[in-house]
């Protein structure tokens, strides 16, 4: 039995066959492509199975809740009540799958565990906001056209819709708690992995900047804007003591009064909004110093917007990523541990994407 199939017409026409033997390079490429397609198909199949299993369990929970409390006059039915419960379960399952399709193709939020915990939480919230009213509306229509013939009060109305909406919202809330508890360990593992990758990228970015600063004859990429390159270098401070340090760019921060703070941009640690003042934390003579400046956060952002390493991590904080010692994840919140002063700055969910982009931009 031959290990390889004989070359076909397509291979011959495109030169993939040399003296009757399949070209090694093309064979490797073909194997890589087949392996990728097989892996992709397996992941897609696994994702569909996991989605269907999740929806079946959620729908079963809703049916059990309806069987226990027997709303909509289901207690007046005999064995037919179980038929109606099964029908309501099918309706709930169908609406759940339709909601997944809406999220994937209309809202552009496909189901994925690789986009981070924040994406999963946001997608689940969108799912509940879309799915709950649709399920309530579908059950109301079922009550009107099927149950109303025998049990009065099931006709379609705003009151009945609100009643159904409250029942389904309660079921969705309980189901959400179940899935949150069930996937808590997976979410925590994802958070830890995401934080670890961010720390690796941060260290690579800082090491790359240090090598650039310590090089006597740096290689300049003509395709990269030289001014941005200089700003990236000046924004990062050398943590370890070096015999020769390049002279960083100096900057004067001003506010609404005559007060000002002059510092070397690479010595800036962070800026914190404290009432009507800005707390400027920076290094001076290798010592941590804080100066108060009457200004607004918007003024500070506009002054520092040309320095890509200084980003807004929170509504009350601007941070120099070159002085971030570690990114820490704790109970769903992200914090930045600052060098020299060892303070922790919070990272809000709305600013997390900006922090990630700055780290990845500095690494590239």
- The ordered string of helix (H) and strand (E) elements is HEEHHHHHHEEEEEHEEEEEH
Say how many strands there are. 12
Look at the structure and give the mean pLDDT.
Answer: 77
Ranges where pLDDT stays below 50 over 5 or more residues in a row are 1-22, 39-44, 216-248
The strands making up the biggest β-sheet line up spatially as 7-6-5-9-8
Radius of gyration: 30 Å
**Main beta-sheet strand count, sense and barrel state:** 5 strands, antiparallel
Strand proportion, as a percent range, falls in 15-25%
Instruction: Provide the structure class.
Output: alpha+beta
Number of helices: 9
Task: Please give the share of residues in helix.
Answer: 40-55%
Taking the alpha carbons of the first and last residues, their distance comes to 50 Å
Overall form = elongated
């Amino acid at each position: 039995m031959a290990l390889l199939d004989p070359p076909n017409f397509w291979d011959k026409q495109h030169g993939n066959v040399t003296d009757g033997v399949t070209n090694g390079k093309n064979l490797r490429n073909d194997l890589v492509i087949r392996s990728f397609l097989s892996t992709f198909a397996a992941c897609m199949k696994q994702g569909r199975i996991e989605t269907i299993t999740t929806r079946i369990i959620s729908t079963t929970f809703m049916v059990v809740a309806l069987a226990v409390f027997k709303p909509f006059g289901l207690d007046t039915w005999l064995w037919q009540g179980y038929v109606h419960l099964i029908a309501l379960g099918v309706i709930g399952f169908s609406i759940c799958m339709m909601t997944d399709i809406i999220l994937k193709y209309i809202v552009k939020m496909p189901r994925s565990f690789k986009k981070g915990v924040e994406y999963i939480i946001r997608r689940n919230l969108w799912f509940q906001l879309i799915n709950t009213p649709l399920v309530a509306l579908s059950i109301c229509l079922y009550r009107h056209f099927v149950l109303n013939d025998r049990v009065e009060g099931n006709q379609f109305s705003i009151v009945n819709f609100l009643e159904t909406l409250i029942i389904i919202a309660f079921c969705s809330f309980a189901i959400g708690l179940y899935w949150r508890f069930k996937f808590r360990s997976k979410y925590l593992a994802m958070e830890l992995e995401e934080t670890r990758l961010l720390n690796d990228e941060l260290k690579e970015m800082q090491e790359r900047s240090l090598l650039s600063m310590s090089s006597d004859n740096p290689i300049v990429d003509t395709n990269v804007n030289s001014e941005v390159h200089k700003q990236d270098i000046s924004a990062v401070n050398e943590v370890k003591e070096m015999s020769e340090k390049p002279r960083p760019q100096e900057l004067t921060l001003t506010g609404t009064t005559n007060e000002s703070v002059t510092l070397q941009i690479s010595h800036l640690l962070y800026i914190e909004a404290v009432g009507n003042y800005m707390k400027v934390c920076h290094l001076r003579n290798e010592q941590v110093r804080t100066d108060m400046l009457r200004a607004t956060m918007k003024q500070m952002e506009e002054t520092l917007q040309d320095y890509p390493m200084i980003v807004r991590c929170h509504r009350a904080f601007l941070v120099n990523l070159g002085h971030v010692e570690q990114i820490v994840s704790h109970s769903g919140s992200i914090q930045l541990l600052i060098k020299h002063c060892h303070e922790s700055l919070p990272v809000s969910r709305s600013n997390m994407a900006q922090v990630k982009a700055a780290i990845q931009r500095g690494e590239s």
